[in-house]
C-alpha cells in the first residue's frame, strides 16, 4: 500500500500571498502537496474533490468570505471533519476570538511568522495521521 501524500488546500485571492505560500511549502514542508483556490466557492469544490488534510483559508475573500466558506464546509458531510486554519491581516484579539468561536482550528496573522506557521501546520497535519 502506498504512503499517503498529505495535501493542504490554500484558499487565497492575492497572487503575491499565494506565491509566498508556494515558496514556504517548497522550503519548509516539501513533502506536502499544496493545492490552491482563489475563491471560497472554488475552495469548496476542491475540498470536496481532493479531500485535503488541512485547509488554510483567508478570511477576507471576495464572494464567500472565510467564515461563510467554513460554514459551508461544516454543513457538508464530505468536508465537515477537515481542519481549517484561518489566515488574515486582521490581528486584533477580537478577530482571533471570533475565528475560534466560528470553529477554525487556529488563526494565523499576516505577515506570516514562518517558524510559527510551519509548526502549526505540521501539528495540524500530525493530528490527521501524517
UniProtKB/TrEMBL annotation:
The modification 4-aspartylphosphate is found at residue 58. PROSITE patterns: RESPONSE_REGULATORY. It comes from the Bacteria. This is Response regulatory domain-containing protein. Keywords: Phosphoprotein. GO terms for biological process: phosphorelay signal transduction system. It comes from Paenibacillus durus. Residues 7-125 form the Response regulatory domain.
